[in-house]
Amino acid sequence: MVRYREGALRPAQPDEVAVEEPLEIRVEGRSVAVVMRTPGHDRELAAGFALSEGIVRRRSDIFEITSCLTTAPAGGDVVDIALTDPASFDATKLSRHVFSSSSCGICGKATIEAAMQQFPPIGSAPRIRAELLLGLPQKLAAAQETFQRTGGLHACAFFTAEGELLLLREDVGRHNALDKLIGHELLAKRLPLGDCILLLSGRVSFEMAQKALAAGIAIIAAVSAPTSLAVEFARANGQTLVGFLRGETMNVYSGAERLTDHGHVYTRGDAEFGAGDPAPH
After folding, report:
1. Cis amide prior to 11 (ω within 30 degrees)
2. Is 196 a catalytic residue?
């Protein structure tokens, strides 16, 4: 790597970059997706993908996830999900083209109906102190070991309602990082995750909110912005959605009734605070 600094090109030096490689995901031997991901935790990624696609609903639906040998000239890794009930898998309902870049997971969907997966809305969830959320981005950043070396990965993490970091995953694709996170909990038989706070290092898209709902996650917080469809989705499904979680400020776009502020508990009758405010700079 050659760096330009202070008006001059410096001597070449090594630099560490984030790894991106293809992973083919199969279900019962049939290819359903090729995702561009950071290698590692591939079984978790496959499990989380299967959950958010509606292929499985619980750990007992998965018989096993195995790595496969491939002789394809393009290389890459392959994992195959064997289902407890193979007859339950209907590939036609998946309706996904088989390539997904690291920047987009849902863009492979062939129809709007396939994109709008349906999962049960959130019921009850614990209330948390709003100020507790403010300290989570620093905890996330401190635990992002690979990002600190490369600057090239997204991160997702689960925290308890008391602000304790439970689990973190990094990946070149934000949706991959979340699939790895929820896949880990699925395989550990810990779904639904209504008692956890999900923190994202980037923006919140519709797909991220949908994946969170598939895992039963009630509270989503992000360092960056949500999209309009993510806000609509969160409101329709009872999720608390927080964006621009930076420094001492945040915008709450949905579910403010789960947050407490110096003893005040917001209700559904209160306006979502921050929802109409311009994004902070």
Report:
1. no
2. no
Strand, helix or coil for residue 203: coil
- Give the separation between CA 189 and CA 275, rounded to whole angstroms: 35
**Selected residue with higher pLDDT from 198 and 104:** 198
The whole-number pLDDT of residue 102 equals 45
100 vs 205 pLDDT, higher one:
205
More confident residue, 13 or 83: 83
Taking the model in full, what pTM does it have? 0.84
The count of structural domains within the chain is 2
Look at residue 216 and give its three-state secondary structure: coil
Q: For 28-42, 53-67, 87-101, which range has the lowest pLDDT when averaged over its residues? A: 87-101
| Residue 188, domain extent | 128-265
Residue 271 has pLDDT above 50, yes or no: no
Radius of gyration of the chain (CA): 20
Domain edge (last residue) among 54, 87, 115: 115
User: Is 169 in contact with 155 (CB distance < 8 Å)?
Assistant: yes
| Range of weakest confidence among 7-16, 21-30, 216-225, 230-239 | 7-16
Q: How many CB atoms lie within 10 A of CB 260?
A: 15
Q: What is the largest CA-CA distance in the chain?
A: 64
Among 115, 144, 178, the domain-final residue is 115
d(CA 67, CA 64): 10
* Residue from 104, 107, 156, 196 carrying the catalytic annotation: 104
Q: Which string of b and e fits 166-198 if b means at least 16 CB within 10 Å?
A: ebbbbbbbbbbbbbbbbbbbbbeebbbbeebbb
208 CB burial (10 A radius; 0-12, 13-18, 19+): buried
